[in-house]
Amino acid sequence: MEFKNISLEIRERVGIIKMNRPDALNALNTETLLELSQAMHNLSFENENVRVIILTGEGKAFVAGADIAVMKDMPPLKAREFSHLGQRVFHFIATQEKPVIAAVNGFALGGGCELALACDIRIASDKAKIGQPEVNLGIIPGFAGTQRLSRLVGIAKAKEMIFTGDMIDATTALSIGLVNQVVPADQLMNFCLELANKIASKGPTAVKLAKTVINQGIQANLATGTSYEKEAFSLCFATGEQKEGMYAFLEKRKPNW
Ligand code: CO8
Predict the structure, then answer these.
(1) Which of 5, 120, 170, 204 has the maximal Cβ count within 10 Å?
(2) Quick check: is 120 in a domain?
(3) For residue 67, is it within any domain?
(4) Whether 90 and 149 share a structural domain
């Protein structure tokens, strides 16, 4: 599949997807969502070498939301279909096993905030502005923002952001746990690449299992979550990576996996 609205680059063990419709601030239409889905599938299933994925945007936006021009005259069932598509793509990003880092380079609004929320780690440029401004348009978030935002920052902050539609800056986002770190704009990609390479240097199956168990456990009670952990922990001993990691430690060398 040839991409028109995104770009895909592989740098050794890191896959980089860049949202690339800067004239529309990378707004999400159906075509862009399908391309994003295809690129994520490629990196998840067809590139064994890729261990970590970075998602970012070209220009001054990460993603400024779903495409308002496309939505403006949508009949309800089309709107439902569009919401379903976005939710499916974002669910895949969240649940496929490789870690995904959102490099939030600028505006992450509406569907853009929801896209960042579907990632595992969010690193924001100090120029980023984040929000769920849907109520300004007479709608509510439709790509899982009502659910993921409240789970991440708590119900009170999520309601404040969603009811007011206000954008927050990167420092405020950091203070409520919406992003993991804030870095100067010109250092964002280098910082994210370093982070991605660090994660890529760890036991690859262990990282995948950790992501899966955290995601599944957070939706379950403690006993169920810890039982997922026990099974995944024991699975580590079947991969060969556990032996390599432990022998390398004892032999005072770097593991080779
Ligand atoms: N959709 C379509 N076009 C957009 C969008 C968008 N979300 N955001 C920006 N653009 C376009 C502008 O129309 C403009 O186009 P043109 O040059 O042709 O006039 C171009 O991008 C540049 O934008 P601005 O001139 O407005 O740039 P500014 O720097 O002045 O402002 C802002 C930047 C503040 C980001 C401003 O563009 C803005 O407010 N954008 C809209 C943000 C927004 O409301 N996002 C939420 C959209 S709704 C949503 O995401 C719901 C998700 C769930 C959908 C569920 C399915 C039904």
Answers:
(1) 170
(2) yes
(3) yes
(4) yes
CATH number of the structural domain spanning residue 86: 3.90.226.10
Structure tokens that stand for 192 in this block: 């994210």
Q: How far does residue 168's CA lie from ligand 1's centre (Å)?
A: 16
Closest approach atom of ligand 1 to CA 134:
48
Q: Which domain holds residue 161?
A: 6-200
Catalytic residue status for 134: yes
DSSP string, 41-89: HIIIII-TT--EEEEEESTTEEE--B-HHHHTT--HHHHHHHHHHHHHH
Task: Tell whether 255 is covered by a domain.
Answer: no
pTM, whole model, 2 decimals? 0.97
Structure tokens that stand for 244 in this block: 């390599």
Please tell me the total count of domains within the chain.
2
Q: Across-strand partners of 168?
A: 130
The answer to whether position 89 is within a domain reads: yes
Catalytic residue among 35, 134, 231, 241: 134
81 catalytic, yes or no?
no
Q: Which of 200, 110, 104 is nearest to 146 (CA)?
A: 110
Q: Of 165, 181, 200, which one is at a domain's C-terminal end?
A: 200
Q: How far lies 132's CA from each of 72, 77, 147, in Å?
A: 17, 22, 12
CA of 114 to the centre of ligand 1 (A): 15
* 233 plus 116 within the same structural domain: no
**What residues line ligand 1, using a CB cutoff of 6 Å?**
24-25, 27, 64-69, 71, 79, 82-83, 86, 107, 109-111, 133-134, 137, 141-143
